[in-house]
Design brief:
- This protein has no helices and 8 strands.
- By secondary structure, it is an all-beta fold.
- It has a single domain, classed as Immunoglobulins (Immunoglobulin-like), CATH 2.60.40.10.
- Strand 3 and strand 4 form a beta hairpin.
- The radius of gyration is 14 Å and the shape is elongated.
Length: 103
């Protein structure tokens, strides 16, 4: 398990920086990127998260996990990120536990 933390009751921005086509070696600025949080049983939690291209960047995108995502403290969740572009298909799995943010 990775050591990601999904914070309860706060927005959390997830960045993908420098997305590059491995064949053409060029930045991918027109990808469709979505994410879905899943519980330990693989059931979807909350709505699909849509990532936004950062205008003028070289393959940078961000998406926001909303503050009201119904996560349970100390439970493990996986953020499944799907990336699709003309010459690129990826699926990333980020595993972590839901925790309260300490200030």
């Amino acid at each position: 398990m990775s050591n990601h933390q999904w914070y309860l009751n706060t927005d959390q921005v997830v960045w993908i920086r420098g997305l590059t086509d491995p064949v053409q070696k060029q930045a991918v600025n027109d990808a469709t990127i979505t994410a879905q949080m899943q519980d330990e049983d693989g059931e979807n939690v909350g709505n699909v998260i849509t990532f936004t291209y950062d205008e003028g960047s070289e393959g940078d995108y961000h998406g926001t996990i909303p503050y009201d995502l119904p996560l349970v403290e100390w439970k493990a969740y996986t953020l499944v990120i799907s990336i699709q572009a003309a010459t690129l298909r990826l699926e990333l799995h980020l595993v972590g536990k839901a925790v309260r943010r300490r200030v």
